[in-house]
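Lecture notes, continued. The same structure-token format from the folding unit now serves as the input rather than the output. Read the line below as a description of shape only.
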């Protein structure tokens, strides 16, 4: 049934399905299988593998999301088996067509497609013996800046243990965490500000009173005083505030010249974000909940924020993220890609960052996972807060499958 479905879809895109162009003259290759492996990191990192009959294997990563494995193996595998893996853009459209009405516009369907798209670029690069950045038009920088997500003070929000909130979420803990990241070589750090102050109150209205605003201002003051100009500081508000409270938080931290304030408002309403941006004198960022160029269009056209944070393994993959960047560049907006992934997602994002002018930094969210670097064969990827974009074919990295298996999730 799927074979017929795939054939029918492909036939709508090429007049004669059997006569589709072969762009790999000298490298005839066919996709033979798709599969997933989940690594038990600080998130379930979902590695996507595309096998070919040339012995070349492409690896990608899909954003952690329930249902990705089933979509890839049950829906996308039958569509892609037999196809030419170097036809990345055509296969991206084919996957979107095949899931039309079942999540190809946004949500888990797009996430699954994103993971496969990255693996297709890796396979294509290996087959054509070129790094992905070269296939995208060539790199314009040798290395990309990585910023350290330091979560909240000395703990992740969700892992702060009962009774520890008094110390975990205090300004001194944040200052210590900031200094540690700077000592590790990062010159850009980010903290969560949507954290408990220790006072009990109803947060559902998203209205926060002056003592709560003061708690957040004091955290920002402690961090910026501690590290001075050693690093830029950003904060994440995770969609938890009403427009009036977000405005008061932004005003309270205006004097500290933050790199950006992330997701001050719930993610759906671009008008509200644009209005906030007009009213405050801070740099605003959003985008990790948006899918594809269409999902970013209003944020860009309405210039509702300064920085956009597409997540490559979620928003549509490598080429889709570059298209978002190209749209944004016309409005002088820059990309600060969201990333909570393994080295695969991180390097995929670095390839995009290397090829676009309007790139500031990409996120690194796994400082508490000591074996993150061990997942890749060779030298550490992140050195002194930078990734030197790999020059090998495809992504230019090789997973250490022994380490992957040691941390594999059922
Ligand atoms: Mg965020």
């Amino acid at each position: 049934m799927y074979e017929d479905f795939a054939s029918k879809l492909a036939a709508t895109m090429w007049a004669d399905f059997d006569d589709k162009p072969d762009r790999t003259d000298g490298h005839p290759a066919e996709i033979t299988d798709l599969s997933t492996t989940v690594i038990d990191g600080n998130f379930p990192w979902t590695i996507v593998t595309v096998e070919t009959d040339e012995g070349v294997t492409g690896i990608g990563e899909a954003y952690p999301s329930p249902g990705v494995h089933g979509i890839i193996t049950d829906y996308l595998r039958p569509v892609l088996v037999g196809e030419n893996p170097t036809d990345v853009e055509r296969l991206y459209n084919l996957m979107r067509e095949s899931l039309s009405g079942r999540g190809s516009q946004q949500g888990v369907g797009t996430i699954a497609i994103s993971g496969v798209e990255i693996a297709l670029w890796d396979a294509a690069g290996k087959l054509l013996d070129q790094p992905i950045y070269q296939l995208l038009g060539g790199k314009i920088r040798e290395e990309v800046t990585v910023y350290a997500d330091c979560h909240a003070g000395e703990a992740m929000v969700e892992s702060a243990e009962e009774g520890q909130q008094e110390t975990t979420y205090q300004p001194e803990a944040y200052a210590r965490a900031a200094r540690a990241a700077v000592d590790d070589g990062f010159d850009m750090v980010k903290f969560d500000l949507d954290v408990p102050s220790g006072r009990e109150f109803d947060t559902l209205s998203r209205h926060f009173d002056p003592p709560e605003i003061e708690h957040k201002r004091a955290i920002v003051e402690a961090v910026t005083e501690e590290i001075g100009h050693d690093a830029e500081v950003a904060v994440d508000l995770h969609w938890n505030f009403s427009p009036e409270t977000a405005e008061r938080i932004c005003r309270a931290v205006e004097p500290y010249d933050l790199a950006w304030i992330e997701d001050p408002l719930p993610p759906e309403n671009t008008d509200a974000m644009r209005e906030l941006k007009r009213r405050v004198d801070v740099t605003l960022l959003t985008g990790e909940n948006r899918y594809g160029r269409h999902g970013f269009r209003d944020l860009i056209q309405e210039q509702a924020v300064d920085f956009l944070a597409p997540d490559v393994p979620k928003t549509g993959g490598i080429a889709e993220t570059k298209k978002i960047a190209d749209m944004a560049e016309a409005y002088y907006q820059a990309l600060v890609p969201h990333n909570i992934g393994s080295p695969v997602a991180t390097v995929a994002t670095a390839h995009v960052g290397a090829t676009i002018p309007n790139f500031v930094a990409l996120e690194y969210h796994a400082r508490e996972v000591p074996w993150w670097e061990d997942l890749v064969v060779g030298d550490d990827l992140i050195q002194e807060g930078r990734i030197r974009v790999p020059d090998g074919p495809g992504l230019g990295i090789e997973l250490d499958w022994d380490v992957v298996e040691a941390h594999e999730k059922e």
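Point for the exam: The first strand starts at residue 31 and ends at 40.
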